[in-house]
Amino acid sequence: MKFLRNTALAFWAAGLPMAACAQAPALTTFPVGTTTVTASALTTGLDHVWELVWGPDNFLWMTERGGRISRVNPATGQVQLLLSVPDVTPTGESGLLGMALHPDFATTPHVFVVYNYTDAGSLKEKVVRYTYSAAAGSLTAPLVLLGNIPATTTHSGSRLLILPDRTLLMTTGDAQLQPEAQNRASLNGKILRLNLDGTVPADNPTAGSLVYTLGHRNAQGLVRLPDGRLYSSEHGPSNDDEINKIEPNRNYGWPNVEGACNLPSEAAFCAANNVREPLTTWTPTIAPAGLTYYDHPAIPGWRGSLLLATLKNQQLVQLPLNAAGDAITARPVFLTSAFGRLRAICVSPEGRVYLGSSNGGSDRIITLENRAFVASATRAANAFAFELFPNPARRQATLRQPLANARVTVRDLLGRAVLTLQGVGPTAVLDLAGLRAGSYSVQVEGAAGSATRQLLVE
């Protein structure tokens, strides 16, 4: 295990981009509370950016709807084309869509993409796994995990998200076949869950079925919070765009329910079919797309919020969550019409937000950052000590620290938050049962500063 950890650390360090020699010119600035956020162009000349993923190599990974998969250096904006997928059909809204990277990328460099293709004259959708070679700068060995899903030039979804248990979630649109969203035998209008080899997980809601949730029209955003909660963004018809809290085996209503269960026929259907109402809706519609979660001290006003990229309204929308995560408390908007249609969004470990535009032919990646922020690692004067025991630990560890209202974040070797606790007092117990064996960092943050210790989970 020691060899594996050292290998992963070496891979991580090797992937760190060099700091940029100069900051990119500011295109605009805007306030978020007392923070000034600066927007700048990281790279230009793109075509319908569909997905942005912060990679474990500390590069941005990007899909463009026409079929290109690339790595983007976040310091220089240099785009490295890895593959132009040969059988993508980019017609209307179809093409190369969502992407996810294997959580164990250092040792299992698999890249998962979903895209539309043509089979015997019919448009279909499939999930394909590629293997990345850093030395060759390429993606090879395509393996189809799931295919033959009916598609049209609209309503194809599709985001991918890998869960900590190494299963893959995939959103599918109804492909304009509205009744199929309620048909459990159909893969359309669903969130699907599959193993990373394409098989059906044994603990899916229905044995032998990939269906995780049903009753979706066209979900184009999907995000998991560090505490495990899942949320999606979904296009409505001419009304009721939605943000949904995703729970396994729940029904999200489409096409029998649009938005809330507020009509007599909808209320009856909801009661009979375990329907989960959306947390919030928009009428007129805004065309919600990429969805991420922000919880970084760089922009305090966005902490604890979902951030949503929108197409029709050309806005970035903040969606603060309440403590239970079952209500959205406000909907402030930013960047209205500044960069056109916005589809992709992700957050770096340094608290920068990256947006991908989807206007066609002249698209770009936009960086949003607080240029005045100084990372806590550089604030040695504010550091303090805390206890963590036992260490190594198995299923749980006890944390003792001097702050009254601290935030505790456990990160893996690739810097990803795997456990977050808020409002922690002087003593807390960390539940490690869901973590794989390996080395982690534990960060405690509060008004007095920040401190980090290593934790070994056996």
Automatic annotation (TrEMBL):
Gene3D superfamilies per the record?
A: TolB, C-terminal domain
Signal peptide range equals: 1-22
Name by which UniProt lists this protein: Glucose/Sorbosone dehydrogenase domain-containing protein
Q: Signal as a keyword? A: yes
Q: Which domain of life is it from?
A: Bacteria
Give UniProt keywords alphabetically.
Signal
Question: Keyword Signal on this protein?
Answer: yes
Taxonomic path? Bacteria, Pseudomonadati, Bacteroidota, Cytophagia, Cytophagales
Residues forming the Glucose/Sorbosone dehydrogenase domain are 46-359
